Amino acid sequence: MKILVVGGGGREHALVWKLAQSPEVEKVYCAPGNAGIAQLAECHDIPATDIGRLLQFAKKRRIDLTVVGPEAPLVQGIVDEFQKKGLRIFGPSAAAAALEGSKAFAKEFARRHGIPTAAFAVFTDVQEAWRYIERHPLPLVVKADGLAAGKGAIVCETLEQARQALEAMMVQHVFGAAGEVVVIEEFLRGEEASLLVLTDGDSYRCLVPAQDHKRIFDGDQGPNTGGMGAYAPTPAVDAHQLRQIEEQLVKPTIEGMRLEGRPYRGVLYLGLMLTAQGPRLVEYNCRFGDPETQAVLPLLESDLAALMNATIDGQLAGVELTNRKGAAVCVVLASAGYPGTYEKHKPITGLDRDFPDHVLIFHAGTKRSNGQIVTDGGRVLGVTAVADSIPHAIREAYAAITHITFDGAYYRRDIGARALEHLRRSSLGKGHRQ
Fold first, then answer.
1. What's this model's pTM, rounded to 2 decimal places?
2. For the residues 187-204, what does the mean pLDDT come to?
């Protein structure tokens, strides 16, 4: 097969890396790609949202399978357009991608189908939204309805923070049209987890549960980002909880979308909060998570291309998904100032080092300039280590990241800390039981 991966971030680098390992794959293309992806695939400078040019490219190069990384082209209907032309493409239709494209739709869908989630209300008028906030206990979460690159959810501990969030979204339009509608919901207390599920609209297969680190600073402080690191599997989700998540969230979502005439085919991302009352849905994404993919795919033993083809053909029930034992930890190296304003074109040193096989450097915001690899985004690299345990993988990832730098490089130093705390408590519990 010839495969086209759409996108140019760390998630897409991980997808290209995994797909290139398939014996079924002859060649991988990527649009637009980045400096790291270019070492594995033939990159073409076509924006991920330029559906017309992507279609032309796929037809001209006789691409056998297109895999879409980011959410924007999915919400815009790239899958529908490719299918109209008889081209195979992995991802949900525009109607199904509404689960991510509109938080209001997703919350109301969850309510219709009895999927446990936070109490919420939807607003198009800033004054009505403010009156709602005044009547409800804090903290509350204010969310832009549309796509906001992972930065459209603001946890508001005070009335002033809530006022500023509403002002930014509905008056100043910092997220553009995405903030014209807002969802205000109760703040859920617990531990977050991410579950990526492959589904053909009927059957499904779960990848390893992961945990993202969304805040910019250590200790989960500061504003939300697209994600500063992830690890898998998360000990927060044990076998019992995974069955609970499947029964209460995964199955009702797949069945509900089919019943509403929006069958979901592709990868479904469930952002979860593990509360004292059980798992709750925080959000849906209609694509592979970033950076969760950089931790989850290195643990996948199965052929990803074969899984994707089975998903498209409605034959997932006949395919097994197997994962290797052990753990993977991804630490994101970001530009100073991210998730706000940051500078680009900073030369990166250390990438030419001979890293061990269990260390993977996934490029996110990089490009080649005058023979050098330089920074080209807020999140620049994802340094992933695979090992026999989470503590070992954490040590290996942080040992590797010390060898890579650029002017203003920043990374969190506590990725996986919650996993270590889980393991410590579990060890104490075993000691008491003995």
1. 0.95
2. 97
